[in-house]
Design goal:
about 140 residues; mainly alpha; Cytochrome Bc1 Complex, Chain D, domain 2; about 0% strand
Amino acid sequence: MNRFMVGSMGLALGLVAAIATAQDSGDGNKRGWTIPPGAAQEANPVAPSPEVLAKGKKLYEDNCQKCHGKSGKGDGPDADPDHMPDDFTDPARAARNPDGVMFYKIWNGRKSPKMPATKTEGFSKDDVWTVIHFVKTFRPKA
């Protein structure tokens, strides 16, 4: 191989690595989330029911909708246009964020882009798990 080809391959591999690092891997990535090891395997301890979904909807409307939007697309009136909140209707995002990962993102929040930590906003852990059940209703049906 000539030097140009080797250099091009190295540049391409570096670009792929940078993109992979920047993407949300669902395991705490380097984007400011505090996600413990094993979170992706953590199951939601709150059983879904019509009552749980109704409570989750109310919690979402009161606390999350202003940024994440009425239909979960990340287009709420208080969304930061420079750092749009996640679109809960995106199947790729859903695949990267199982219940346990979502729990720790909601529970711990992050500073930049801003996502309040619900553990300091008066939520119980069961409230977070309840919101997760509701948020999953935005996902496309298979």
